């Protein structure tokens, strides 16, 4: 924790207060696609359709959040409109992007935070998820 940005999950109603993505955050579409693929490999299918990922202005202590349409307690395989929102005010590289996407996909899959060393569900970004490190060799972006 020690001042590291925290990863949060909030209900879909929080989306209405989000601002549009700013020009300062740039994430290549191919890298975002690859990060979603790493997350799908880790957690499997979630929601009624594959989650999408978007840049949005979020709180300064937040890297990302997972949202879906409807009630909070909808089972993960019955959720509609699943989205992973990434903070457009943060600097992104492959490790941070991929780990955040895997973390938020984990919330969409119904997982809570974990203090287990090396878990992608750690509430603070301290180190990249191992699956992201293994996928780093194919990066076209830093």
Characterization of the model:
The structure is a single chain. 36% of the residues are buried. With 142 residues, the chain is α+β, with helices and mostly antiparallel strands. The two termini are 25 Å apart. The chain has a three-stranded mixed β-sheet with strand order 1-3-2, covered by helices on one side. It has three helices and three strands; from the N terminus they run αβββαα. It has one domain: Collagenase (Catalytic Domain) (3-Layer(aba) Sandwich). It has helices spanning 29-43, 94-108, 130-135; strands at residues 52-56, 64-69, 80-87. The model is unreliable at 1-24 (pLDDT under 50).
Give a quick set of tags describing it.
142 residues, alpha+beta, Collagenase (Catalytic Domain), three-stranded mixed sheet, 3 helices, globular, disordered N terminus
Describe the structure in brief.
By secondary structure, the chain is an alpha+beta fold. It is built from three helices and three strands; from the N terminus they run αβββαα.
Number of domains: 1
Largest sheet geometry:
3 strands, mixed
Query: Can you tell me the CATH architecture?
Result: 3-Layer(aba) Sandwich
The low-confidence runs, each spanning 5 or more residues with pLDDT under 50, are: 1-24
* Structural class by helix and strand composition: alpha+beta
What is the N-to-C order of secondary-structure elements (H for helix, E for strand)? Answer: HEEEHH
CATH fold-level name? Collagenase (Catalytic Domain)
How much β-strand is present in the residues? 5-15%
Quickly name the level 1 CATH class: Alpha Beta
Q: What gyration radius follows from the Cα positions, in whole Å?
A: 14 Å
- Taken from the alpha-carbon principal axes, the silhouette is globular
Number of strands: 3
Total helices: the number is 3
Helix content: 25-40%
């Amino acid at each position: 924790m020690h001042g590291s940005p925290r990863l949060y999950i909030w209900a879909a109603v929080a989306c209405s207060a989000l601002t549009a993505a700013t020009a300062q955050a740039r994430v290549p579409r191919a890298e975002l696609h690859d990060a979603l693929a790493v997350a799908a490999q880790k957690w499997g299918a979630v929601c009624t359709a594959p989650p999408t990922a978007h840049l949005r202005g979020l709180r300064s202590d937040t890297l990302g959040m997972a949202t879906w349409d409807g009630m909070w307690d909808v089972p993960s395989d019955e959720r509609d409109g699943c989205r992973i929102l990434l903070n457009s005010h943060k600097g992104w590289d492959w490790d941070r992007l991929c780990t955040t996407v895997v973390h938020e996909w984990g919330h969409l899959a119904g997982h809570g935070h974990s203090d287990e060393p090396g878990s992608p569900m750690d509430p603070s970004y301290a180190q990249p998820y191992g699956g992201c490190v293994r996928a780093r060799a194919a990066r076209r972006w830093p």
